[in-house]
Structures are given as structure tokens and as C-alpha cells.
Hints:
29% of the residues lie in helices and 18% in strands. By secondary structure, it is α+β, with helices and mostly antiparallel strands. A four-stranded mixed beta sheet has the order 1-2-3-4. Strands 7-8-10-9 form a four-stranded antiparallel beta sheet. A two-stranded antiparallel ribbon has the order 5-6. 25% of the residues are buried.
Amino acid sequence: MKRFVLICTTVFLLSNLTAQKDSGSKNSSPNLDLFTQGLSSPAFCPAEIKEFMAFYPDLEYSAIYDIEVQDWKIDLSADLFYERTNKPKGRKTAVFYWADGRMLPKEELPQKDNYWTLRYPYSNTLRDPKTFTDEELEQIRKFSSTENRKNGGGSPMFFFDFLYSAQSRVIIEDHIIRTKFLGKSTRIHERVYDALKRIEKKILENADDAEVKTFIDTLKSADAYCWREIAGTSRKSFHSYGIAIDVLPKRLAGRSIYWDWERNRSGDNWMLVPLEKRWTPGSKVIKIFEDEGFIWGGYWLIFDNMHFEYHPELIGNQ
């Protein structure tokens, strides 16, 4: 049974009452009248917290406003193993601060600007490289530079480490399931196993579509879980969580599929490779993945056309 518990309240310090007492105010002690006077009252969670947590309905959480750090403190609790498995029962817990949508532990709050927010606009519209301005081209080159990838910001992984039990390779591999996707062996996290199976079913049901049939017939591999860092960075790849899958075709026939491979071939103008010269899984396959909460890396400026990644919080942010 899925759980969804929401407790949103606010903690207020009584400094204003102390000030009243020191100044000789008759109303110098806290009482229930304060709630009716509006000096302290229950507060609702910000909508963005409720919206984010709605994408993970099996998590139990409570949110309390911590006036000391002036941010929402979120207590999380979840089954140690996802409900579809028959593994030992147990609970795991964590405490994060909202940090404008970053979900950070308290000690990371001073560095919050070093992290991206967990929800950002996911555009499922391909940008024609011919429309890039000179300024945009320079921004893309800077963003994809070795220095920026190594030292720049990135997605905070603390919430995902909790969600997928990814504190270490040993721990997470107890949650990784061996399976097949369209006949290809792969390993996927238990939390996204059902979604991947629904994707497989929908693709096979649409095999009479020429584009979908080509995708099925030319699929070489579908690699998901791999404990590693993102190339050129010191941050864990979402493949390390078993929630990203690369669908590689048998032949590229000269087409581009991954920005860094194209950079090795084309140099600094790698982002200008025309859309028609890039391999894609096909619009219908992409839509099937998106309907199950996966984003497609082909929409990124630093394109990764073989790559799908489970992020229902982004699909719901379109």
C-alpha cells in the first residue's frame, strides 16, 4: 500500500513575546489567544514542496518551517525496499531543507548556490542549431567546457541518494534488478522496474508503426545501471542509480548520437550538427518513455540521444 502523509506547520520563536515582557507589556506570556490574534498560526507548506513530493507518493514526509535557518525542514521516511519486492521489511529516514528546491542537508545550506534546483523546465522541443546566435554558441561552449564540467554546478544528489539507497555501490546493488528490455539484458533500479516494463509493453504494442519497428529491429543494447561518474565531472551519473538507460542502435551510419563524440569529430562546432544528421529513437518511442516519467537526453543542448532518465518531477513541470 502506498503511503502519503503531509504535515505542514510552522515553528515560531517567542522573541516578540520576550520583547513585550521586557518592555512591560501586560501580555507577557504565551497563551492560546496568540493563535486567534494571528501572532503565530499554522502555515501551509509552499505549493512547490507539495507538488514535488506528489511525484513520489510512496514517501511519507512532514515539513516544518525552521525559523533559525529560515527554510522548510523536511523529514522523509520510506520503505527500505520498494513494495514490489519480497525483501526484508524496514524503514529509512532522512532530513533535508527545501533550499529553494534543492533538498539539501543542513550543512550544505551555505553552499546552496553551487547546486541546481531539482525541478527545472524540461523542454521537449528540439532546437534547430541554425537558430543559435553567436552569443548562445559561446555560452554552450563555455557550459560544455572541461573546466565548467569539472568545477561547475550540478544536480544535488542528496535526495536521490536517499530515494534510491545510493550511498554506496554495495548498498544500491541490493536494489538493482536484472531483466531484459526488448530482448536486451539490462539492470535497473527496483523503483523504476515496473515503469520500464510498461514502456516495453507499449513499444511492442506499437510495433506496426514503421518508426517504432525500426527502433526495435535495430536496437543493439539497453544498458542502465553502471556505478560511475558523469564523464568529465566528479558527480555521480544517474546510471549509478539504475534510473538511466542508454538505447544504442546497431549502426549509426555516420549519424551523431552524443555531443562529446561529435566534439571529438567536429571540434568546437559540435553543437551545429544538423538535426537530420543525428540518430533518434523516434518521436513515438520518446513519447512512450515520457509518458512513464523518463526524460530524453536528445532535447538537451549537450545532446545525448541514446539516453533516457527517470525524472517524473521534470515531466510534470512542462
